[in-house]
Amino acid sequence: MKAHILCIVAASMLAGCSSYSFHTNLSPDNVAEYFTPSAVDVMDKDELLKYNSKALGSVSGLSCQADERDFIANEADARTDARIKAARIGANAIVFNKCVVVTDSPSCLKSVTCYGQAYIRGDKIR
């Protein structure tokens, strides 16, 4: 009898949760975009010299704290933005030159901009 009541209670609980919907801010249309930075390896110039590579151009990434409620601008976000831009021009490697921090600009309380060179890294030189 107890097992029968337990089954009824469990079934009722499961049925009660069946109308629950899950919402996320992740868009299925942008899943590829979420993983774009991982397609671009961060390298230093000496490491890149071990490979056949071709420079594609300069890229920069920005992290901006527009107001006090926003996340604080940081180098990691600026580098990630630069890696996304490098991937968009077909790069698979990036060498960062420098990052610059600016406070109290007209559009950002704090901003971090990282500059780098995007490359297509080929086969390793023997």
Automatic annotation (TrEMBL):
Keyword Signal listed: yes
Taxonomic superkingdom: Bacteria
Signal peptide start-end: 1-23
Keywords on record: Lipoprotein, Signal
PROSITE patterns reported in the protein's UniProt record: PROKAR_LIPOPROTEIN (PS51257)
Record carries keyword Signal: yes
GO biological process: intracellular signal transduction
InterPro entries: RcsF
GO cellular component: cell outer membrane
Protein name as catalogued: Outer membrane lipoprotein
Organism: Anaerobiospirillum thomasii
